[in-house]
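Reviewers of the previous submission asked for a worked example of the structure-prediction workflow described in the proposal, so we include one complete record here. The input consisted solely of the amino acid sequence. No template or homolog information was supplied to the procedure at any stage.
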Amino acid sequence: MPNIIYEDNHILVAVKPPNMLSQADKTGDADMLTCMKDYIRTAYNKPGNVYMGLVHRLDRPVGGLMVFARTSKAASRLSAQMRKHDLGREYLCIVTGPVKDTFTRIDYLIKDERLDKIVVCEADVKGAQEAVLHGRCIARRDGTALCAIRLETGRKHQIRVQMADAGAPLWGDNRYGYGIPGQQIALWGYRLTLEHPTTHEIMTFQDLPYGNVWNAYLDVLTAISQGTPLNAINTNLRPEDEGETT
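From that input alone, the workflow returned the following C-alpha cells.
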C-alpha cells in the first residue's frame, strides 16, 4: 500500500512508488487509483463502488506525491486549479549533462508516432503543445547535477523530453536518455501545493526520494527535509560547469 500522508473527507495525498501506474491500463498491473479506492473501502468499511477522482498523473517509472479527490466537487475544483496552473508541482531530478544554476525551458512537444516518443518540435507544427518549466541546480557531483524543477504546464514526459533536448537527460532514463536496463530513473515529485477545495486553505506537502543514485546527494536531501531553502544550499556550483540550458 502506498504511503498516505494526508486525508480528509475531500482529498487524499499519497506517495506513488516508482514503477507503479497512476491509473489502470491494459497491463492489469497495480495502480494508484485502484489502491486508493481499495484503501477507502477497507478503512471506512464502504461497500460497493468508492468515488476517487484522478486529478493528475505521474509517469510510471516516476515516484512522488499525488493528490486524489474524494468527492466530485473536490475533483472539479482541483481540476480547475490544474487548468489554471495553480496546482503547484515541483520535482527533484538528477541529470547527466550540464545545466545553469537557474534555467527556463519553453518548448513545443508532439507525439512522434514513428518513434513512439514525445519530441520537441516547432511551434507551428499541427498538434504541438507548449511546454514550460523552470529549474534550479542545487548541487553538482561526479558529472551529475541535482535539480529542482517547477512545471507551468503538464505535458506527457515533459521534464524527461525537455531536459534531454537541452543536453541534460535524466539519470537512468532508458527512453529519452542513456539509462541502462535495471536503472531507476532519477525523477521524483517531491513538493505539491494546492488550495483545499472546501476550506480554501493553501496546503503544501513534501516527500523526498532516497536510495540508489539519490544517496550521492543524501546530505542535500537531508538539508531540504530540515527546511533549508534550495537557494541556500547551492553546493559545488561553479560557473565553469554551466551549460547552455536556457
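The radius of gyration is 18 Å. We consider this example representative of the routine output the project will generate in years two and three.
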